[in-house]
Amino acid sequence: MPIETLFPLAIYYEDLPDAAKHQQTLLDAVLQLEQSGAERRNYPEMAWTGDLHGVEQIHTNPDFAWIVGQVEQHTANYLLELGVDLNKVDLYIQRAWPIVSRTEQEVGAHCHNTAHISAVYYIKVPAEGTYDPGRLVFIDEARVNEVSPGLGSENTDIIAEDNYLNQLQAAYLPIEGRLLMFPAKQRHAVTMNETEELRVSLSFDIVLTANGAASGAYEFLTPPPSQWQKFKSGGLS
Ligand SMILES: [Fe+2]
To answer: What distance in angstroms lies between residue 187's CA and the mean position of ligand 1's atoms?
Structure first.
């Protein structure tokens, strides 16, 4: 009996051909930033994330110029695939930061609420083997096939067999040198790095705004920052 599946989540990826050439430069830059960042603010079992430690502007750092160029190019490709008219939007990198996940560290579930597209680049991934290098887990919040809410939860537990129609998570194995993009509102997490090696990635928050004649004319597209006016009072009366 056939089953149709609709509404696929579009996850773009590209294995960058020059990845190996740039790996050491990027790795050195990230580890240097980690050293010079703010005092550690999160729990030891959480990966070091630059945005929590004063390192969230790597897109302005010349050491990251190559990957920033790649992110720009592939964001355009991704949006073209999604049918977006690139003549009507400006694209911005709003924030960008490194993530260093050491042994037994992970990243909790979150979405990137201030952005529209999330990009991840894997600088260094522990070799695949007995131990898991930490997977990017996409969490299905829409639960489109959960015909009775909570069906598969441990409080109900009436799913007899896990299959592709009742999964609420998909775990994506990171690939060194791969650039990945997905909607920033898509909830995700990174599982524990079970290896003894470093797992190092970069995260980019990308924003679309209206441009040209479309500026400010669309209810659901952010007007360009050039049209914004900061409170002259600074918001204080
Ligand atoms: Fe994230």
So the answer is: 8
CA nearest neighbour of 184 among 99, 96, 57, 102: 96
Question: Using an 8 Å Cβ cutoff, are 22 and 66 in contact?
Answer: yes
The residues spanned by each domain of the chain are 12-212
Return the structure tokens found at 105.
């560290």
Report how far ligand 1's centroid is from the alpha carbon of 46 (Å).
Answer: 13
Give the Cα separation of 26 and 66 in Å (integer).
9
Structure tokens at 122: 């894997």
CA of 111 from ligand 1 middle (Å) equals 6
Tokens 């997977």 correspond to 135
Distance 110 CA to ligand 1 centre (A): 6
**Encoded amino acid at 186, one letter:** Q
Per-residue burial over 74-96, b = 16 or more CB atoms within 10 Å of its CB, e = otherwise: bbeebbeeeeeeeebbbbbbbbb
Residues forming beta bridges with residue 189, ordered by sequence position: 137
**CATH homologous superfamily, domain 12-212:** q2cbj1_9rhob like domain (2.60.120.620)
Q: By three-state DSSP, how is residue 77 classified? A: helix
Cβ–Cβ under 8 Å, residues 169 and 78: no
CA 90 to centroid of ligand 1, rounded, Å? 22
- Chain center to CA of 102: 19
193-205 pLDDT tens trace: 999 999 999 999 9
Mean pLDDT, the chain, as a whole number? 92
* Least confident piece of the model among 54-63, 163-172, 212-221, 224-233: 212-221
